[in-house]
Request: fold
Amino acid sequence: MSQQDHDTYLLGDRPVRRLGYGAMQLAGPGVFGPPKDLDAAKAVLREAVALGVNHIDTSDYYGPHVTNRLIREALHPYPEGLTIVTKIGARRDGKGEWLPAISAQDLEAAVHDNLRNLGLEQLDVVNFRSMLDVHGPAEGPLAEQVEALARLRERGLVRHIGLSNVTMKQVEEAQRIVPIACVQNMYNLVHRQDDAMIDALARQGIAYVPFFPLGGFTPLQSGALSKVAQRLEASPLQVAAAWLLQRSPNILLIPGTSSVAHLRENMRAGALRLDAAALAELEDIAGGAA
Ligand SMILES: NC(=O)c1ccc[n+]([C@@H]2O[C@H](COP(=O)([O-])OP(=O)(O)OC[C@H]3O[C@@H](n4cnc5c(N)ncnc54)[C@H](OP(=O)(O)O)[C@@H]3O)[C@@H](O)[C@H]2O)c1
Reply:
């Protein structure tokens, strides 16, 4: 399998299908507490794997603990080749606020929480999620945290290290400490601030995993998107997903949903091809209202 295959890309040393699944939407409202229907949430995970998903994104701070435990209950023992990616660097308080948790002790405890709740002896990929600014990448030193993760990797608790909510300068700083397998930042049809980073990572064979690929809690909506979707007999969110797949071969998708019907719809985006006319029409959406 080469990096160039249309359907797969290497996440560290793991070949994963480019259409994966993000588990965040399986927790309760505000990504806090359990979902209303635990069986329905597990059904989404099982259907994802049945449809060929072999890359699931999660974190122990979703819930907290909720999505990891759902993944374990729904899928353990895990199918051969399933890559589970988690992230650390934050914690939740009693009201569900997102707070930084970035000391070496915090990071080690978070790795152990993920191992225990997922039922794993080694985590495939751990992203360090920068909380310098919770809403978007902010410059600042991350070396201490990356060094702490590198030590956990040396102990065999973590296979690969990634970064989330970071700038290219921070990626380069981290790469001087340890190999970086992937970067997870916000990016979609409307928010294209990482164009240069995506291309730079592609040249190095590093995966870029956009979060909020469909727009996040407020899924993308625009007249141009609906028009293209109608012409291609697809849904607007399928077009948004297909656009990401076509944008660069190193982009791995982790669209989130709590619905089996939406999951099936999203997976069908893998078969959708956007022609030059569609791509031109979609250009105008960048920076517009989502
Ligand atoms: N690193 C970070 O800081 C960070 C931040 C946010 C998220 N993430 C990761 O990225 C993943 C993806 O992000 P996300 O789930 O927040 O956003 P997303 O994938 O852009 O969109 C999810 C939203 O779209 C809806 N949706 C999905 N498919 C749909 C469809 N076919 N039709 C209509 N609505 C649809 C979902 O609602 P329904 O449940 O009703 O389908 C949900 O409201 C997360 O699951 C998480 O793993 C990482």
